[in-house]
Structure formats: C-alpha cells, structure tokens
Design goal:
Helix content is 59%, strand content 0%. By secondary structure, it is mainly alpha-helical. The two termini are 40 Å apart.
Length: 490
C-alpha cells in the first residue's frame, strides 16, 4: 500500500470543494470558505486564504474555516521548510515515517463515501489487498469485486478474440507491440486492446487484453481463497475456474481448483478425474513449484478414488485391503539381518550407542502397521518431509531428525525421508550417521542427490556441495558422476 493510495482514497471520499488541485483534504465536518475572485495583488481564484495574523509573504488573505492549523512562528509558516501541518497524512519525500497499516486503515475507515465512490482498478484492488492482509475479509471482498468489475469488458474482449484465433497461440504483449509499461493502468490497457480489436487484429487484441487481465487474475485468486476460508467452497471453485478460463496454467488456480474438486466432489468420478488431471498439469507446468510433492500425492489419491467409483467405494476398498493385511500372520520379532519398518531407525541400540534412534518395539510396529493410510495422513507426511528439508537448509539438524523420525516408520521406502535423516545425523556428527548414510545411498542414491538440489534451492549452497561431495566419495561409480561433479565444484 503506497502513500499515493492513502491520499487518493482520502480525496475520493471528500465532497467536492473549491480547494485547488493537490490541496490537503479538509477534515470531515468542516467546510472551506467560498472561493474568492482574484483581486489585484491578491490570491488567485480558489487559493486557500490566510488567516489574519498569519500572512503569506505578501501578507494577504485568510485561512478558510476548518483549514488544518499552521505550526511554527507567529508569521504562520511551518517550523521548518517543507514541513506539513500536524495531523496531515505523511508525505513522500519528507523525513516523516509512512503510516502503519492500522493508521492507514483508520484514515480509510473515516473517509466518508469511500466505499461507494467510483474508483480505478488500481485503487480498488490496493484497498482490497490492504484489508485482506489485515484480516478484514468482508471489506476486502467488497473492494475486490469493485476492482474486478472494472475489467469485465476486457475479459469479454479477450475471450472473444481468443476464440477468433482458434488453435493459434496468443502472442505475448511484447510480441504484439502493445507498448505497455509498469505504469500503464488496467483501463488504459483495455482501451488499447479494444482499438486492436476494432482494426481486426485478433492476435494483438487478445495479447493486450491478456496483459491487462494479469493483475485482475491476482485479485480473483485472492478472492477465491477468501471464499474458501469463509466456507463458500462452491463460490471459490467458480472463481478459480474463471481464472483458468483466461490463464489455464495459473499455478494458484490450477492447484486450488484441483484440491477443491477432490475435496468437495468425492462421489463425482468425472470431477475426480479432472482433479487428477489438474494436479498432473500443475506438476508438468510448474515442476519447481512449492507444492509439487503434495500435488503428486493428491493426484494419485484422486486417480485411485476415481477408479474405485467414488470416495465411499474407495474407502470400502481400502478397508478390505486393510482387513486382509491384518489377517495375515506377522513375525513376532524382526528377522535376523532384516531391518524393521523404518529401517534406518531400527537396529541394535546397544551396539550403536545412545545417539542411535530407538529401536521399534513390536507394539510400535503393530501400531504403525494398523494405521489406516488415509489421504490426510499421506499428505501430512509429505508436508513433514518438506518441513524436515527446511530445517536442514537452515542447519537445524536436531529438529530435522525429529521430523524424519515421525515419517520413516510410516514410509520406510521414502527415499527423500531416508536421505534427509542421513544428512541430519551427519550434520549432528552422530555415531549412526555413516551407517544410515550407507542405507540411504544404497537404496536411493538419486534421492540423496536431489536433496542437494533442494538444499541449494533453499539457500544452503554450502550444504548442497558438501552433500554432493560425500555422495561422490561414497559411490565412486555414480551413474551421473560427471554432472554431479560439476554441481559439487560450482
């Protein structure tokens, strides 16, 4: 939120007065004196008069009733050159600090008529974002809708022009020569698109219109999230689908729509398949996105649920699989030489030392085995793995180890979790580190290498290079050795 917005919002709320352009708004409840005609040697028409005893350099005129009082000397000038009156909104270019969010909201709340007064897209969307960031969702929704309304003609134009293009791709705004700059407003961009359409330039019109809609889609995504959080899941789904009508690969809309379909259309096989396809599209288009692993997991669940014929049938199928699994005989103790569930965590604790993770008891094994693998559990485990990697990248090895201990018993074949646990133990210098590292490298060396990529992406370049160097030392004949050496030596 910029100072320009605060001042503009205040001016929007003010009733028309005879004050000149850019004059500070008169506080609510006061009225400016009528404009005085210019007189020889006097002030120009509309200039605020000066109160008696507080003359200008020429000593003429008086302040209008209700004008903010002037501070400083008896001459009525500000105490320092360029200073603003007490209580005036902070001005850019001065030493005064900008208003806090609370102060700005109080100014906006006191601005009469602000909610109903006509606004540009930029003003309405900025107000919506300010209220949204401060948890006032009802006001945010109102301003978001006002902002979106400004772009309705441009949206309609874009859809019409894209249809005319058929299978031809819509060019970028740069390719189409739209000539937009960061300062070009949404309305101005829409007008350019309209002019292109009138000239029969469908590609240029579509390109310029799509560029104009980019900030609008951002507002729509925020409104969709607000609808979801306030319980209107159907409304949120509609909003995300509107975004995808314009930008089919928008990451937030693509993931959120798929998640909503999976959550709310559990018995609709067609919707579940659409959710699966949406998650797959998210992974394909945004392979480095922050929710790729979660999207892959949910994609699998959506596909399985669709194949089963709906969530209730899928649950019954899982219950039957669980019943069969539990009916099969289980060894009362781990077989010699074979690790128990969560291999890196198990073993002879006495031989490994007190720093080794505790061995799993039979009761713990039974509890893990009997736990139903619900989508919520799997998604939670995926989030824990991400949390563990975040700890590793920040050097918080103890916290990371605690996270991985919660994951590995449920997912003993999870290469990412085993790699993370091995690196956490290495960072802590635990006696078990080398053994767990060998297990992780021997079962899924590629996951260990990928952990280095994750550390690098999260800002831990030193840790990533150390991990890759250790991997090269552990596996001299690593299949991707040349590429791994290049990364480790960067």
């Amino acid at each position: 939120m910029t100072l320009c917005l605060a001042l503009t919002a205040a001016l929007l709320a003010a009733e028309p007065t005879n004050l000149p352009p850019n004059h500070p708004p008169v506080p609510p409840g006061t009225q400016a004196s009528p404009a005085r005609p210019a007189s020889p040697g006097g002030m120009p028409e509309g200039h605020p008069a000066v109160m008696p005893g507080q003359g200008t350099s020429s000593g003429q005129g008086t302040m209008p009733e209700g004008h903010p009082p002037m501070t400083g000397s008896g001459a009525g000038q500000p105490s320092t050159p360029g200073a603003i009156p007490d209580g005036h909104p902070p001005m850019s270019g001065t030493d005064r600090a900008p208003p806090s969010a609370d102060e700005l909201l109080k100014q906006l709340d006191s601005a009469e008529g602000l909610r109903t007064r006509e606004k540009s897209f930029e003003i309405a969307s900025s107000l919506g974002k300010l209220y949204h960031a401060n948890g006032r969702v009802s006001e945010a929704m109102m301003y978001f809708l006002q902002a979106e309304e400004k772009a309705v003609p441009t949206r309609t134009l874009f859809l019409e022009q894209r249809k005319k293009l058929g299978k031809k791709p819509v060019p970028s705004a740069e390719e189409a020569g739209c000539g937009f700059t960061p300062a070009t407003t949404v309305e101005e961009m829409g007008k350019v698109a309209q002019e292109r359409a009138k000239k029969g330039d469908a590609a240029g019109a579509a390109a310029c219109a799509r560029a104009a809609l980019a900030p609008v889609l951002e507002v729509e995504v925020l409104r969709g999230h607000v609808l979801y959080l306030t319980g209107d899941k159907a409304g949120a789904l509609t909003v995300f689908e509107r975004v995808l009508d314009v930008a089919p690969s928008n990451p937030e809309a693509l993931f959120s729509r798929s998640a909503l379909l999976y959550e709310t259309k559990g018995e609709d096989v067609k919707a579940l398949q659409a959710a699966h396809e949406g998650f797959e599209a998210y992974v394909a288009v945004h392979p480095d996105g922050p929710r790729v692993d979660l999207a892959m997991q949910l994609s699998k669940f959506a596909e399985e649920t669709a194949k089963a014929g709906g969530r209730e049938k899928w649950k019954k199928q899982r219950e039957e699989e669980r019943r069969i699994r539990l009916s099969q005989p289980r060894p009362s103790a781990p077989m010699a030489g074979a690790p128990m569930a969560g291999a890196p965590m198990a073993g002879n604790a006495g031989a490994q030392g007190q720093d080794a993770p505790p061995a799993l008891t039979q009761e713990m094994m039974d509890a893990v085995q009997n736990t139903e693998r619900t989508p919520e559990l799997e998604a939670g485990l995926a989030k824990l793995v991400e949390e563990g990697e975040e700890h590793l990248a920040k050097g918080r090895y103890e916290e990371a180890l605690g996270v991985y201990r919660r994951v590995v018993p449920f997912q003993p074949e999870n290469g990412r979790a085993k790699a993370g646990m091995a690196w956490a133990l290495t960072g802590l210098g635990r006696p078990m580190a080398d053994k767990i590292w060998s297990v992780a490298v021997g079962s899924d060396a590629a996951a260990v290498e990928k952990l280095g990529d994750t550390l690098l992406a999260k800002g831990d370049a030193k840790g990533a290079k150390a991990l890759w160097a250790k991997l090269l030392q552990s596996v001299p004949d690593y299949p991707n050795k040349a590429a791994l050496q290049a990364k480790a030596s960067q």
